[in-house]
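Tokens as discussed.
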């Protein structure tokens, strides 16, 4: 865990990515790096809620490029 320069720590909070102290500027993270890692995880679909639902069925592909 790195200590970042110019970081105002918030008591009792740890960065959810690296566990370092959070800063007011990047709350709830400690740095721009950890904010970007979290954003990348969201955009990549790593954060998911488990469900028992199934995806709707898609129409069968007929192998040609004709319109329906």
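Sequence:
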């Amino acid at each position: 865990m790195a200590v970042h320069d110019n970081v105002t720590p918030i008591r009792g909070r740890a960065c959810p990515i690296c566990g370092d102290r959070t800063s007011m500027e990047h709350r709830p993270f400690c740095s721009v790096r950890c904010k970007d890692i979290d954003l990348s995880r969201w955009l990549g679909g790593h954060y998911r809620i488990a469900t028992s639902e199934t995806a709707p069925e898609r129409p069968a592909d007929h192998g040609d490029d004709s319109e329906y």
